[in-house]
Amino acid sequence: MQKNESTENYLERIYMLSEAQGNVRSIDIADALGFSKPSVSNAMKRLQQNGYVIMDGDHSIHLTDEGTAIARRVYQRHEDLAHYFMAIGVSEANAYKDACMIEHDISEETYACILAQYEKLK
Predict the structure, then answer these.
(1) pLDDT tens column, 81-96
(2) Prediction pTM value
(3) How buried is residue 74: exposed, middle or buried, by Cβ count under 10 Å (0-12/13-18/19+)?
(4) Could you tell me the fold of the domain covering 76-121?
(5) 19-54 per-residue burial string, b: 16 or more CB within 10 A, e: under 16
(6) Antiparallel, parallel or unpaired: β 53-55 and 61-63
(7) Helix, strand, or coil here: 97?
């Protein structure tokens, strides 16, 4: 599994769920993302094979250090972009939705420029 949008979305969601509730299981991810449990189980196997997550004896899912680093980066981009969009007048719902759509695709240069502009607006 390459670090693509799907991988990043799963890791970000695991990170968010673990921050909110501690213990994360496949069903929690399926519910949060609106995917079937078998689809999530397959994705968790691939994430585990690639060293991004581990599962303990109770089938709880935990991010590895590498998985956590990716998840935090994506989550931070999501939050930063959404806050910038809201600062320029976008509604909160659309700001978060739009941030989710572009957080994976914009370059580091564009992201840095957006952050610089956001700092000027604050």
Answers:
(1) 999 999 999 999 999 9
(2) 0.87
(3) buried
(4) Diphtheria Toxin Repressor; domain 2 (1.10.60)
(5) eeeeebbbebbbeeeebeeeebeebbeebbeeebbe
(6) antiparallel
(7) helix
